[in-house]
Design a protein that fits this description.
nine-stranded mixed beta sheet; 12 helices
Length: 416
């Protein structure tokens, strides 16, 4: 059951808005869903970028997940969360020599390689450290997937090594690099996939690609990293993934390739699917204003705290699911929900039907806000105090995972 309104009101007696609120039980349910998908035949990685709160990373670790990281900061966070270093996997297209040195010094399990130059750089750093560094070859396949909100393969991309580059010369060059060990391949087709057939087709393409590369170049992959991209149904025209049907199709695919896969460790990554449904953003209505025939609901938290709901950087916007705490939504009127910023892009919900009696002092709740929320937002714009991030655990206790910022924090990282 989602966090009840009575619990939210109790929290509002102690914490001022705006803030993020997470439901631990929903987080754990999402983890269980993905584990059950494969009858525990797959290793699950939590993509830290979706929500890098230390407590959430610890929950993922305690649930058996490894962590997929993309920066020195996320490596540090993963280690602080108590994740075994061998279960930390480092990806990203722009790793500097200092990033690679840091990752190797900290003992990161596997680095996902995104270019030929990066392969050589990792080998040089590993040589200087006198170690052999395990790596994935991240591949940008020729196959372009359907059903994705954002496709990251089959097109020119900063991500991965193009499939056609994986030829005799490529593998001959790898064989000359004594301080790296290619232990697997990594393919990430893209994000926000709500099409089961598409995910299954993508997965089979990866299996076939791995088999072809192993046979043609007499190599052995210990790991097959399938990436992730499981979608969340944010909008009215979207349907959630049918996980029962998905499991049926996925297990059938694993059985089809059983002979090949029995010597492999299969990896899946997920961030959004694991966290999005578990979070909500709560902001207080400061004013309700009429302007040239439109109703504006002005709140104390805006796009600087929730860039995803404001669709910053997107050409086409939509609305996250939104409700007003404790109010009946039977009689409604279209409203534009905005934050307190001095910019017309500060829109959290556009022409959204809110209760007709929406008024000052009400609380707007933006659902499905557990992924790509606070740390995905321009927090320092206009130097507003950062909101708290809270969690309701399975016993109904409130945990504060990030405190409200203070005005003086604006100078914390500055030099006098």
């Amino acid at each position: 059951m989602p966090v009840k309104d009575a619990t939210i009101r109790r929290i509002l007696n102690e914490y001022k808005s705006p803030f993020y609120l997470y439901d631990q039980e929903i987080l754990l349910q999402s983890i269980r869903q993905l584990y059950e998908l494969s009858d525990n035949r797959v290793t699950l990685l939590y993509s830290v970028k979706a929500n890098p709160l230390l407590y959430i990373c610890r929950l993922m670790k305690q649930s058996g997940c490894g962590l997929e990281v993309s920066s020195q900061g996320e490596i540090y966070l993963a280690i602080k969360a108590g994740v075994e270093k061998s279960r930390i996997y480092y990806s990203g297209p722009g790793k500097t020599v200092f990033d690679i040195q840091y990752a190797i010094e900290k003992g990161v399990g596997i680095i996902s390689v995104e270019s030929v130059d990066e392969l050589n750089l990792i080998n040089t750093v590993a040589l200087n450290k006198n170690i052999i560094q395990p790596v994935f070859i991240r591949i940008n396949p020729n196959y372009k997937s359907k059903g994705l909100r954002f496709s990251m393969t089959g097109v020119s991309s900063q991500f991965g090594i193009d499939e056609e580059v994986l030829n005799d010369n490529f593998f001959d060059e790898i064989n000359l690099l004594d301080n790296i060990q290619v232990v697997g391949i990594h393919v990430y087709f893209g994000t926000q996939n709500l099409d089961i057939n598409s995910i299954i087709q993508n997965t089979e393409y990866i299996f076939r690609l791995a088999i072809r590369l192993e046979q043609k170049y007499s190599i052995h992959f210990k790991y097959i990293n399938l990436g992730g991209g499981f979608g969340v149904d944010y909008f009215p025209n979207e349907s959630s993934l049918d996980m029962i049907e998905f499991k049926h199709m996925f297990l059938k695919l694993l059985d089809k390739y059983h002979e090949y896969l029995q010597s492999k460790n299969i990896i899946m990554e997920s961030g959004r699917f694991l966290t999005a449904n578990a979070g909500m953003f709560i902001t207080k209505v400061l004013y309700v204003k009429e302007s040239k025939g439109k109703t504006f609901v002005i709140c104390d938290g805006g796009s600087n705290f929730h860039a995803s709901s404001a669709f910053l950087g997107r050409f086409i916007r939509n609305n996250f699911p939104i409700r007003v705490l404790g109010k009946n939504h039977t009689k409604t009127k279209p409203c534009t929900i905005v934050g307190p910023l001095c910019t017309p892009t500060d829109i959290l919900g556009q022409d959204y039907n809110l209760p007709i009696d929406i008024s000052k002092g009400d609380y707007i709740i933006i659902e499905k806000s557990g992924a790509y929320g606070l740390t995905n937002s321009p927090l320092k714009f206009l130097s507003f105090n950062t909101p708290a991030e809270l969690l309701v655990d399975q016993k109904g206790q409130i945990r504060c995972m990030r405190h409200h910022g203070k005005p003086e924090d604006v100078l914390r990282d500055q030099m006098d």
